[in-house]
Every structure is written in structure tokens, then in C-alpha cells.
Fold each of these.
Amino acid sequence: MGEDPAASESDASHEVAGRRGRAGLVGALLLLALAATARADALDEVRARGTLRYGSDMEGGAPYAFPDPDSPRSVAGFEVDIMDRLARALGEGVRAEFSQGPWDRLLGVLDSGRVDVVVNGYEWTPERAEDYLATRPYYIYQLQLMGPKGTPAGSWDDLGRPKPDGSPWTVAVLTASAADDFAHDSDAGAVRVVRFDGATDAMLAVQNGQCDFTLQDGPAAAHYAGAFPGLRAVGPPVSRGYYVIYARRSDHALRDALDAAIGRLAASGELRRILEKHGVWNDLQAGLATDFQGPIEVPTTRRAARGWGLVPHYGDRLRAAALVTLGLSFGSMPLAMAIGLMVAIGRMYGPAPLRLALAAYVELIRGTPLMLQLYVLFFVLKLDPWVAGIAGLAINYSAYEAEIYRAGLQAVPRGQMEAALALGMSRGQALRRVVVPQAARIVIPPVSNDFIALFKDTSVCSVITLVELTKEYSILANGTRAVVEFATATAAIYLAMSLPLSWFARWAERRLGAEGTKGGLA
Amino acid sequence: MIEARGVVKRFGTVEILRGIDLSVSRGEVACLIGPSGGGKSTFLRCLNGLERFQEGRVTIGPDVLDARQSPREHAKAARRACLRTGMVFQSFNLFAHRTVLENVIEAPVHVLGMKRDEAVERARGLLDRVGMLHRLDARPRELSGGQQQRVAIARALAMGPEVMLFDEPTSALDPKTTAEVLAVMADLARDGQTMLVVTHAMGFARKAATMIHVFGDGLVVESGPPDQIFGAPAHDATRSLLAESRVA
């Protein structure tokens, strides 16, 4: 999607007319804005404030923007250097100010007004260019395929044929990145795309042998090659796209000022010096100074696919993602309940060493984040994503269930256990036949509460490449910019899945409840 | 049938039982009376292993509970003791999630391995005997205390115990329902059921007991047939106890 070779060549001829038209529009809008709300273009605010706030994500962000190894409290990277120069170009004493945000939600941060622009390897796409104002590129990227040493494939094109055993190649990508789009759209039937939340996670998965290849933006591939000695570049780079700076639609003056500043930076050779300093310069970048006289033109034909119509259009993908959510929930919750019950019984009736060990288990599992537990299962133990996801959720929730059951077991009067023992039952029989069934009724509300929470916690499994509902929402909303539409649809699907659960829980409570009923409870 | 020798029970540093010697023969109806906190209930719970004790030993038929047993040995011995005894609790302790019939057949089916039909047949007979046949499908919380206690007696009897242990079976009941339960117990006593009853119901003790043991301060202070205990109490504790019950 980020690739549009025709655009740069046609830019020059259309640019003049395009900019003049926009300038007129800007003037009209500006007058309107001044008359109505007196809201100034962000450029004026930036100058008045003396800072240009840009949204970026330093997590796994080298060499774009990352914690400075020499001074960990500050941020370094070629984008940081570029933004420093651009900010200075906006006016006397204007400084650039880094603002941390999650990579795939940076445009939302831009919408909220907390930053003036977004710049973080955000490639130009027609969809984004419709909703935001883009500058000319400050970098021309290509995608680099990386594989383990000794991989049989020699280039991206070799992935067109399936593996010797007939199965597809797995290609790890950063979710919603240009590589994601490229791998997804390229007509390679023998490729299965596996999505990660971080570029380095994708590389780790290949080094671990969990995926066959990873497709990375060139700068990231070059920078992290040293950190992943098990990987090597496979074949020449593929695809091509442009990193641009995005501003809000209302901020034409800011965008135009930044755009012009990039042009001057490129023409003066300073941009080249910055890129060379960070080791990301290559021959392709020569085009930055020569191929662009302004922002990339927005094709008008794109306007069709928008709005609520997108939701049914992507219905299959949402349905598939909802099934993943259901599979994870119904796969893990029964396990969590079974493990939790055993832990609770062990803690209440087991010998002292076991009680101690189980208490430690509960505290360890409750006290560490689910995401970290999934990481260990997936990247360290190298389990299959589904196995890791179900096991991780089951283990995590078992600790919470154990405490609920312990409370439930304690709520059953002591006399019930004593009566069972006095009748000659063993402790196990007494628990199974007398105490646990009564505790079950007590714990239905909190357990069903947890089940609904788990439904939504399955979204954490996106870190181990499972594309469940929240992840699919993120992908679709990011790709189409139909945020409100997909957010509404996703929320509706979650609700549709959790409501029957609530009803079932209430029904079970009534059925098991001994509140004056005479049901045939076996 | 039951023989306790030198049973000592402590909760922390508090000595609840200070060396109890007591025996119950087959067919005997023994009543344990005494002031509250005298250790009667605790002693009863030591007999079937619900409580452990620190010194002494208890024999029930051929089975032995000994203070020196390991927890595992004690648990095994306690289970055998429970199979020989039936226990009726002050607070009934019917299984709250089961019906009346289910309460009674639970242990015969799942502990003795009795066929369900046979267990139901026996349960009906026992429930008829305690006057609860008409409430087979009721849940415990739908019954009055007296009704619950009568079902609890049937539940204990269903296991065919050699000895029935009653732990203040009427203390939680009002006078009318107390009378119902005591009538059932008197009926059992007439049938020759060996019984050990912890009670404050002096009228019942006087009428139904063959032997009375008076507890005071963790010891058996006086034992004897009802006529002797009620007619010519030898111990001060017994006299004050009888005086109190007459006033009440």
C-alpha cells in the first residue's frame, strides 16, 4: 500500500496547480476559522509556544527514535535529528519536543491535539493522506526480507513456491506496517503473514525458529542486524515507500512550512548528513532532493471505500477474529477453573509444604503481568501460539479462580464437612460430594465475572501473533481510518458474545440455587 | 462397645478434658450431663475422631484411636470409628444442596456401595419411623429445626451404626419440636439402640437413660443409674446442676 512509484514522477507536473488550489482553500478556511472560533493554525501555536511537539514511539524504535544509549533519559535517532532541524526552521527559538505514544495509535494522539505532528516511520498511504496532511518524504524506505542463516530461499520471489513439505512460508511482520500490507497484498499464495506488536519481536521469532522469515523496513533491518546474529538479509530489498510527516487537516500552514523545510534540508545536503550519521543512507535517498517539489498528490479515486459500508465489507475478517477470541476464551476458562479448584483445595486441605507452594504459585501468577507470562511461553518455551495463548490465560486466571474458590469453600459451613466425615466419607468424597457442590453455587457470580473479563483479556494474545478481535480492530481501523465504525462494530461483537454468558451465569445460579426451589439436582 | 481411658484434650494451654475414663456397653443408653463448657461435646467428638486428643486412647469395638497415632493413622482409625458410629449434631448439618431423601441415601450409596433402589427403600422406612416420609423431596431450609433433626437422625441410622452419638440434639430447638425429637430418641432407646447422648434435657435423661455420667470441669465427677443420680446425688456439682434445671 505504501508503494506508489507513479506518484513521484507525476508529482512535479501536478504540483503547482495542486498547491495553488489548496492555497486558495486554506485562505478560505482560515478566514472562516478566524471568523468563527479564532482558532489559529497550529503553526502559530508552535511559534508562540516555542516547541514543536511530535508524536513517536521509542519502543523498539531504533534507528528512528529510541532511548539514547549515552543518556538514557533522552531520545536519539535520525528522526529526532531531522525534527530538531525542522523545528528550528519554523521560527526563531522553536525546539522540537518528543512525545511518547503507542505506535499504532499515534494518529489518534494527533487527533486529540496533544501533539502537533506524527513522525515515526509513518509511510505515506492514500488512506492516511485523505484524513491528514502529509509532507513530502524525508526518507525513501524499502523492505528487507530477513531469514535465518542457511535458509534455502534466495529472495522474496522464492517465497512464491511453498516449502518442500508443501506448507506455506511464515513471514513475521510488524502489525499494520508497510511490510504487513506488502506481504498481505503480494500475490504470494505460499506466504502466511504472522503479525507482531513490535519489530524486534518479529526478528526474535525468526531467530527462535518460530517463523521462517521476517519482512522489515530497511532502516530497522540494518540497525538490528547486529542484535540478531542468527539472521541475515535475504535477497535484494523489495517494494518502496515514503516516510512522511502527518499533520491535522486543519493545519495547512504548519504542513507547508515543514514540507518546505524538508525540501531545503534535502537540497542543502544536511538531510544526507543526518541519514549517513545514522547509517541509513543509500543511493535511493538521492531521490529525496530531486523527485519531490511538495507533498505527494492524493488520488481522488480512493474516496469510495469509507464509512459504515466498510464493516460488512470486512465482516469475514471480524468474524474470523471473533472466533479466535471465542476459541481462546472457551479453551482457557475451563482449564483455569479446573486448575484453580485444585489449587484452592490444595491450599485449604493439603499438607503444609503443598499449601506453601500453592500460595507462592498464586502470588507469583497474580503478581506478574499476563503479557509477560505469554512472552515466556511463546518466546522462551517456544510453544505454538495457540498452546501458549490458552495455557497462558488458563494459568493466569487459575490464580484468580483459586482465590475465589477458596472464599467459596470457606463460606460452606464447617458442619457440612463434619457431617460428611461422620457418615464415613473420606475427605476427598466429602469435598467432591458435599462441600464443592455448595461452594460452586456461591462462586458462580464472581467466576462468570472473571470469564467476561477473560473474554476481553484475550486481546493480550496479540503479542504472540494471534489476531483476535481487538487486534483485528486495530488492523482494520488503522488501515481504513474508519475508527469510529470499527470501534462500534467491535464493541457490539464483544457485547454480543458476553451477554449470553451473563444470561447463562444467571440461569446456572438459579438452577443451582437452593433458594426454596425443588429442582432435580443430581 | 466404647471404652475411653485417660482422654486428655487441650486447646492451646487450656485443658478441656483432664483425663476421662468412661465406657458404654452394648444396648446401653448413656447420657452425659453437666454445665456448659464442661467438655461433654468435645469428648463426644473425640470418640469418632472429629477431634484429636493429646493423651489416652479410645476403643470402639475392635478399632482404636490413640493419642500417639500419626495424623495419617489417626485419619484412618477415625474413618473406621465413623463407620461404626452415627452422629447427630446440635445444628443438624443436613446437606444443604440435597433433598431429604438424598440426604439419607447419600452415604449408604456412596460409602457402603448400596444399590440406589435398596437405599431408597431403607430410607423410606427410616423416614417413616421418624415421621418425615411426607417431606421426601423437601430441601433442608424448607423444614423446621425439629424436622431437620429427625431427618438427621434417619440419615445417621441409615448407615446401620453400632452406636449413635447425639451432641445436644435439642439445644437449638423450641419446646414443641424438642418433644418431637426426644420422642424419636426414646423410641430408638426402647429398641435397644446403643446410644451416647450429650444433653441438657433432664427429663429425657431420667426416663430413657440406663446410665448417667456427670461432667464437670473436664472430668467425670459422678456416674450411676438415673435413680441414683437424680435421687441421691453424691457430688456437689451434680446437686447444683439438678437444682438449676429444676429452677429452669
Amino acid sequence: MGHRAIAAVVVIGFSLLVSGCAVTQVQVDTLAEFHQSRPKSILIVPVVNRSIDIKASTSVLTTLPRQLGEKGYYVFPVNTVKALLEFEGLSSPQEVHNVPPAELASLFHADSILYVTIHSWTSKYIIVSTTTEVDIEYRLVAADGALLWADREKLKHSPDSHENGTVLSTLLLAVVESAIERADPNYLPLTRQANAKVFWNVNQPFPPGPYAPGYFEYYQDKP
Amino acid sequence: MRASLSILLLAGLLSGCATQGLYDWGDYEADLFDYYHQPGDKERVIENLVQHLDRMAAKGRKPAPGLLAEAGTYYLLEGDAEAAVDFYRQEAAAWPESRPMMATLITNLEAN
């Protein structure tokens, strides 16, 4: 085995490693399925929460309708959906995620279903500030089960720092704010930030829905 | 002076842009979050949403998708099926996509 062969093995091994990493990060490279499916409505089902923070899932659930409604989609009312699913005997989010998409879609006559999983949500208290780190996965699936779009977002959030004021008052403010953040982390700003990064990402633009002003132009050149 | 005026103007323009979207969502996000975690706030949350929907109707603006149905569900979970059906009908009238789901809810409620 010459140098070249060894180099080839190394390259292959390396690319396997790299692709191995890529697999854990769910990504859709092409929007072809999305464009073909052209969903008009999105059913956001209850959020699966793998963290121990019970408010993490409700903060994600309550901030998604606006995000997607403003993209031009009809978004099924999340609390009404949750109530109806509970009447149907599906009381845990994991149970809902396990139902075949076609079944869920037909129950609501939805064009697509958004599944969100919170992989982690941790708040760390370090001297005078609390940092919350989250890891959230989003998957949009068509009524027939085809994956239309996916993203996974990891981000950190800390309360705003205070640049004005004396060192002492800044320190005091930070301590007070950190205590508040620890008692009740600032859920909604954090999840809004995560959602915005996902749905308004310029590198992976989420297509507009039928109520968005740019909808017809967007689909004009799509097959 | 002129600089500060233009900064004010710019800030005004920017904040104007920030609030302009397809819909006015009122306090929907924060209120629903409160509804889940502060059971004592339920009455206030329901009242606030109904007032928001009244304001939208008075302005002739279409409410954001789902908000009429959410008001219906708040009433339903308080035991007021009649008010729930009324809001579900309004959601169905405003949003064709919601009609099958609203029909299911209305049929179930009227059967009981």
C-alpha cells in the first residue's frame, strides 16, 4: 500500500467521520419536497421536552404560532389542538409524536405538521449572571409523512448586561436580575430568539405561506 | 439638535416597522404562557383576549389565525360550551383551513 492509498483511506475515513457528525444534525438540503407540497396550513403539535424544565415546552409552544402565522400560514390554534388531542386520549406529547402523520393530518385536515423536541434546556448560575443554554429540534412533515424542512438550534441566553451606571449599581442590578432569572428564566424572549433564528435564517429561508405578500412571486419560478 | 431629531425619527420608524406584521397578536403569547403556569390568571387571560378580538372587530381587522378558536377553547374549559361554539363558528368563518376542525368541535359540543 503506497502513500497514495493510505492518503485515500485517511480521506475516506475523515469524510465518514464528518458525515457521521452531519447525520446527528437533521438538515434538509433541498426545499424540493416543500415546494412540491406547498403547505397552506401548519399543525403545531405539543412539544416533546427531554429537559426537566416544565416551562420550556410551553414557552416554545406559545411562541411558535405568531412566528409561522407571520410567515403567511394558517396555524392551527395550539391550545385548542392540545385540548382536542387530550379529548382523543392523547395526553402526552410523546404519544402525539408517535401517531402516524397521516392520521394526525386527517384529524385536523392539516397540510403539514410541525414536531418540536427540546433536547436540553439548562440554566447555569455563575457569580452574577445566569446563562440558559437550549438545544431545540424542529421538523416539518407533510400530511403524507414526507420531511419538508428541519433544523436544530443550540443557543445561549443571558440577561442584558448593563453598560451604564457605577460598577456597584451594575453589580447589584446584575445580582437582582440573576436571582429573578434563576427563579424564572426569561422563557419567552429566549424561545422567540430560537424560533427567529430557525424561521428567519437567511441561509436556510423558510418559504412563505399563502397569506404572505410575496407568496405568488416566490412560487412563480418553482415547478 | 438636528442629529437627535433624526435619531428620534429613525427610532420611531424602526419601532413602527417592528410592530407592523400581517396581524396584531395582542398579548397572545405571554397570556397563553401565563394561562398554563398561573392558574389564578385564567380569568384575566380570557378577558384580555376577548377585548383584543373586540378591538380587532371594531377596527375591521382580521384577527390572527387561531385566536378566535383559542377564545372558544378558553370558554369550553371553563364549562361554557355555548360561548365556545360561538367563537368556533367565527374562526371557521374567518379561516377556511380551520373549517373541518371547527366542525368536529361544534358537532361534538352540540351532541352533548
